[in-house]
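Example 3.2
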Amino acid sequence: MSSPASEARLEPFRLRGGNFNLLVLRLLDPRVEVIVPALADQFRRAPGFLRNAPIVLGLDDLDPAAVPDFGHLIGQLRSVHIAPIGTTGGATDIRAAAQAAGLPPLRAAGAELPVAAPAAPAPEPVAELPPPPSDWQPTMVVDQAVRAGQRIWAQGCDLIVRGTVNPGAEVIADGNVHIYGALKGRAIAGGAENLSARIFALNFEPELVSIAGYYAVRDGLGDAPLGRAVQVCLIGESMRFDRLG
């Protein structure tokens, strides 16, 4: 039997800080009746994309004068198995409306919550490329195939998969994705809005590829050389598919 002294030391909970990588759904249109059907159409073309995923709503691209109906949007997103947990960016009125609906503003690790920013000083010329972020990690290497239903996330680094990414599987990296096998599932590079990230696959037959939030599904790959060794990169806001070798 436990003594009163030992029972007194029991803690009902502990709070600890933690860092989590989350997908950001950038809202480009404030209308719920436009956003949700577009997502539902995406689900039909790429089953499993974002399904049951916690996401952050990116508000920077919205017109400050057009405040979405966040209460309605939250309900509609949950009806298609998406769990919005907060927001990032956006004008003050939009952030306030989102917070009133239960979506608090989130901050990146080490960043401050959104406040009125002072006038920015003129940028200084950059003499050389900046060093990689201090939290950048060594490349993650996966030595086996990625099975259907698996999701592998290389946080703060590149990802190398030495086997096949099977249909229904998903690989994500904040940097580049290298697949030394067949890409038959979903590959997402530049998870931290890294527009220069790339995807490499020796056998390119994906369900979906995405770089820094821009994506293409199998039906939208156009003239991409399917079944070949391919490099995927962003040119502006368009994806380019180049044969390797």
